[in-house]
Amino acid sequence: MAQKLPVIYACKFESKMEKVTYMSQGAKYDGQWQKDVQSLSSVSVFLVEDNPQLLEFELFLLQSAGVSCHGFPDGAAALAAFKAANPRPNLLLTDFNLPEMDGVRLIEECKAMEPGLKTILTSGTVNENILADCNVKVDRFFQKPWDPDEVLSTVRAMLQA
User: Fold this and answer.
1) Which residues, other chains included, contact 97 with Cβ-Cβ below 8 Å and sequence gap of 6+?
2) Residue of 56, 65, 53, 62 whose CA lies nearest to 92
3) CATH superfamily of 38-160
4) Can you tell me whether residue 132 is helix, strand or coil?
């Protein structure tokens, strides 16, 4: 089995996020990958990440694919917005280790209100074994650093299902 290379994010944002450059497994992408992405403008995603640079990158990544996104720096803010949202988002992509409320608890609270909500949990501090002890189904787990192309294709597949 081939060893997977670590993903290195070298993000460069220019003129209010009109362009992004990042490195992924040794291949350089400079906005060209966007051409193959089907528009997902009729769906909505909540992104929850306490690292401001990573949240900005996640928002840019999905917005470049035509996805309507709302970003939150912690679980409490995301939960308050989720309760007030009408319509509610189609997907919740959240980090595990967050201030105020961890990502699993956020998923539990949101799925209690919206059982069909699709969810992705990410983490740089725990691995997917954490899901064995969850009281709620998490649809997908990504270990940080994650591959932007893999996350984008997973989000697309989940939203189109």
Assistant:
1) 50, 103, 123, 124, 125, 126
2) 62
3) Response regulator (3.40.50.2300)
4) helix
Does the pTM surpass 0.85? The reply is no
Write b or e for each residue in 25-35: b if 16 or more Cβ atoms lie within 10 A of its Cβ, otherwise e: eeeeeeeebee
Torsion of CA 39, 118, 90, 35, to 10 degrees: -10
Residues in contact with 121: Cβ distance below 8 Å, sequence separation at least 6, in sequence order: 94, 95, 96, 103, 104, 107, 131, 138, 140, 141, 142
Helix (H, G, I), strand (E, B) or coil at 85: coil
- How confident is the model over 72-98, as a mean pLDDT? 96
User: Where are the chain's structural domains?
Assistant: 38-160
Among candidate residues 68, 83, 152, the one with its CA nearest the CA of residue 114: 83
Strands, sheet with 44-48, edge to edge from the N-terminal-most edge strand: 68-72, 44-48, 91-95, 118-123, 140-143
Question: What is d(CA 125, CA 127) in angstroms, rounded to the nearest whole number?
Answer: 7
pLDDT number for residue 29:
43
Residue type, 139: D
CA angle 70, 101, 111 (to 5 degrees): 65
